[in-house]
TrEMBL record:
GO terms for molecular function: D-cysteine desulfhydrase activity. Belongs to the ACC deaminase/D-cysteine desulfhydrase family. It comes from Micromonospora acroterricola. The lineage of its organism: Bacteria, Bacillati, Actinomycetota, Actinomycetes, Micromonosporales. Its cofactor is pyridoxal 5'-phosphate. The modification N6-(pyridoxal phosphate)lysine is found at K50. This is D-cysteine desulfhydrase.
Length: 323
């Protein structure tokens, strides 16, 4: 990582902080206790947390004279969609490398990827190592064609990317000086890592979504260069919201999504923010989040993924019946 990278501006800052009084009351908290940081409203192509990370990683790619951004993820990756959007905004090419076979119908993020002009490579292979190998081969192919590819890491996460969320944490402290706990989804790890770097481990609760095998170690590795002395054991991580794995949609997440939609008019997504809210609700029930504490829910976006999730139509039928 080059210490001299200057971040780009790709999003709209600062993102707003709003009260969630009706949700707070529903959870038995004081009406002023619960706030939401609207990092779903970051500006570019559907919004979400990946823009803050891309401001750093794409800046580094440009410093290295890249003309093509290559990245990997699940086919419904919000990170891949926003990498495509960043490339479009900057006049670069984007190549998105996904596992498995192309789906019969495009939905969710894959629709937006097409509109944004990204090239999509389905590798046939499954699993993280095979996907990384496939991305390396795509970069080789691009170089042999005369392109200058930059590989943006899985989920957009690296210690450099985490700086985007260290900035978010500083922004948040200026908006909510009395913050006690920030609750955030933990996927590939740099979002939580950046928040830990600026808020400290005690004030950051990460809710794992099951995207990686070793979330605690990954977050600790990304924090280390930014905030030396934070150990993996110091991190607050809830691993109870994963269900049967990353693609699963649990009852707790369904309840979190319908509750927040109905009392605040804010829609969460089934993979990330729904799990983060289920984790916030669970922490409230345990007393880890108590009345009088100022808690901020970090809304990291992800709504496009809702429309590419196979279990969502049946969930919507169930939701329709609870009125
Ligand atoms: C990727 C993502 C996260 C998790 O961020 P990481 O930095 O990968 O941990 C949270 N919410 C949404 C909507 C995401 O797309």
């Amino acid at each position: 990582m080059s210490a001299s990278v200057v971040p780009l501006t790709l999003g709209t800052w600062p993102t707003p902080v709003e009260p969630m009084p009706r949700l707070a009351a529903a959870l038995g908290l004081g009406r002023e206790d619960l706030l939401v940081k609207r990092d779903d409203l970051t500006g570019l192509a559907g919004g979400g947390n990946k823009i803050r990370k891309l401001e750093w990683t794409v800046a580094e790619a440009l410093a290295n004279d890249a003309d093509t951004l290559v990245t990997t993820g699940a086919p419904q990756s919000n990170h891949a969609r926003l990498t495509a959007a960043a490339a479009a905004r900057l006049g670069l090419r984007a190549v998105l490398v996904f596992p498995g076979e192309p789906p019969a119908d495009r939905s969710g993020n894959l629709v937006l990827d097409a509109f944004l002009g990204a090239e999509i490579v389905f590798t046939g292979a499954q699993g993280q190592p095979a996907l990384a190998d496939a991305a390396a081969r795509v970069c080789e192919r691009l170089r042999s064609e005369g392109a200058r590819p930059a590989l943006i890491p899985f989920g957009g996460s690296s210690a450099l990317a985490a700086r985007g969320y260290a900035t978010c944490g500083e922004e948040l402290l200026a908006q909510v000086p009395g913050l006690r706990t920030a609750v955030v989804a933990l996927g590939s790890g740099a979002t939580m890592a950046g928040l830990v770097a600026s808020l400290g481990p005690d004030r950051t609760l990460g809710v794992d979504v099951g995207a990686v095998d070793d979330p605690r170690q990954r977050v600790a590795a990304f924090v280390a260069p930014l905030a030396p002395g934070v150990r993996a054991d110091d991190l607050r991580v809830d691993r109870d919201q994963v269900g049967s794995g990353y693609p699963s949609l649990t009852t707790a997440v369904e309840e979190a999504i319908t509750l927040v939609a109905r009392v605040e008019g804010i829609v969460l997504d089934p993979t990330y923010t729904g799990r983060a809210m289920a984790g916030l609700i669970a922490a409230t029930r345990r007393g880890e989040i108590a009345p009088g504490d100022t808690t901020v829910f970090i809304h990291t976006g992800g709504l496009p993924g809702m429309f590419g999730h196979p279990d969502v139509p049946a969930f919507a039928e169930r939701a329709q019946k609870i009125n």
